[in-house]
Fold each of these.
Amino acid sequence: MKQRIFSALLALLLPLAGCYSRPQTANNPDTSKTDNPPPRAHARSAGAGGGFDFYLLNLSWSPEFCHSHPNAAECAVHANFILHGLWPQNDNGSYPENCSNDPGPADPTQYKDIYLDQGLLAHEWKTHGTCSGLNADNFFNAARTAFHSVAIPHALSGLTAQISLPPEQILGDFTAANPNIPRASLALSCGNNYLTAIEVCLDKSLHPIACPSVRSCRANTVRIPPP
């Protein structure tokens, strides 16, 4: 009798077991960094090109980019901020990727002013540009316009020695240099207490908007090595 009761209870409980499985999280290598909550640590979303809410313009601080990509073509020019990408994002924190197999620009070299590394250009088109709803030339022209619309503060454009600054001061310098970009449109990314990028939230017409789901570096200060 006891065995029959146990078997009946087991039969009832087994179908429910899957309801209490551990939820999966996005595989993001930066989640272990306590000083920098990853701004894009959210699930990818499927969807056709153009099906997104806003753009995230990512300007990488060249010395940190070159620290992890020493052979990149951009590193030979010793720039300060370089264009990493113009990324379609969603308000809920998800982001589309690899939306189609549409070809990239017929002449990628015409974008050498923003992408010296043609491999990075190809990656940005395939991963992000195909989700923009634009053809390749229109997408990279939009990326160029967005990149050149952001003025770099003098304190960072002429840096000759490593300095340390609070993230809020850096973002304040950016708003001072760019009166048309509200503080709410900016985020700062860091890793191991080094500045890695400045990010700007833009609408589909490339106008600054308040960032709905992008978090900033929480370090007290970040180190900024010179180009």
Amino acid sequence: MNISSDKPFLVIGRAGMDFYPQPVGTKTEHASEFFACLGGSSANICVALVKHGCQASLLTRVSDDAVGRFCLNQLDHYGVERSLVSTVGGEARNSLAVSECTVENHETVIYRNGAADFEMTTDDLTGVDWSAYAGLITTGTVLAAEPSRAAAFEAFERARSAGLPLIFDVDYRPYSWKSAADAAQTYSRAGSMCDVIIGNDVEFGFMAGSYEQGVEKARELARSSAAIVIYKMGEKGAMTLTAEQEISTGIYPAQAIKPTGAGDSFMGGFIASLANGFTLEDSVLRGSACASIVVTRVGCAPAMPTADELEEFLSAHPGPVSV
């Protein structure tokens, strides 16, 4: 499977607004000041890719109000191409997250009622020149409701027909789904179509119907359909699975101030590294380093490291370890 940096990546999914109580360590209920920034998993991935020198285009819907315009302005600020981002009026609202810069007893409160991104339809795919992109990236949240789900699967089909690699972050958020059974069935369908699948041990266990069967589910996907499956295990590192090999890698310990943003940062660093010619193992390690950097900073989109910051981190860090 070839992933090139010559073309932009098309990322499907939400952009939102994040609020962080200030200063660092403040619980939400005690806050009098908040830092606002761009959030939403797909928007975060776009920003991460751009900061690594890649091009990224976002396909989604945002609310036709001040919060939606905030997201559009933030996408412009970071250099994310947004010609495929449309607005939706009425009662639709953008995703909003209030997330603490705390590790112990961390709490993130997410507002997703009437989510604007779930209003994406197949009409939003009209006129998309699939040959103009290096790959299609999406996260599991886009599949949690209709009409967004149908639009995403139609995008999968069109991207496959154009020869694009499909890259999928499971990103299971129970609050977005009507039922666990619906989520498991939908994720299995998506997994069978995608070339790169990234998830943690809990998410693969969920897809398998049993936590103990999660790693076997990952191996099954690597044997049957996916070119690359990354099975993340938190502090224990990750297993990268292909039809030919299994690679175990560790993490880069860091002084985290929050747990959020790590998965999006990993995705951006990993895909950008693959696209820039790094080996599979090195790309996973670079993605892991990006995840370690982002949890030491306030915010998600603004916390994504640049390529230079990643190189500086790697040169100063003693190296990855497995707990």
